[in-house]
Amino acid sequence: MSTDHVVLVTGGNRGIGRAIAERFVAEGYPVAVTARSGEGPAGTLTVRADVTDAAAVDAAFTEVEEKLGPVTIVVANAGVTKDTLLLRMSEDDFDSVVATNLGGAFRVVKRAAKGMLRAKWGRVILISSVVGLYGSPGQINYASSKSGLVGFARSLTRELGGRAITANVVAPGFIETDMTAELPEETQAQYKATIPAGRFATPDEVAGVVTWLASDDAAYISGAVIPVDGGLGMGH
User: Fold this and answer.
1) Whole-prediction pTM value?
2) Which residue is catalytic, options 134, 142, 191, 220?
């Protein structure tokens, strides 16, 4: 299958973002990724952008538009953590995480929306986290930024839903990444004991949900939160 819809994945050089970009390439989409350093997977166009900088985001989109065409599928995946308990959390610990995870999605989606409106078609997919709805000690900044994406997607759905533009949230749980691989085995076992599925997800299991949300099969789904967490966050 090939498609004319151009995909942009932020933070597409590693982890979940990289797996999402690879999956879109495999399904025949033209794909660009933003990265502050490193390169996206084979078959993608890598553009430099810091999502906290609106001018950098604009320049990245302009480069993608010149080389691939207008972006009509945007996956806001770039994210950072600065974990610490509330009473030790500095103003910068809070502000910088929110500026990247929530503000970054705002800047990227705002820039993408112009092309989607012209095309009268669009897919906005925001990568949140089970923590956004489940909560986690030491992650007040991160959880706040990730739950904020839910209000973002639902408000955007009410603004642009009549223009064949959908906005949805994917909320992964624990994923097999370099970060989780470095955890002590005992800690990994404790986490897995809380997950009904009894295991971590592969990045590709998240990517499959994202590409499905971008497909015609998901055209009537908007404002939804799709958990990919093995049942960890049920009831939220």
Assistant:
1) 0.96
2) 142
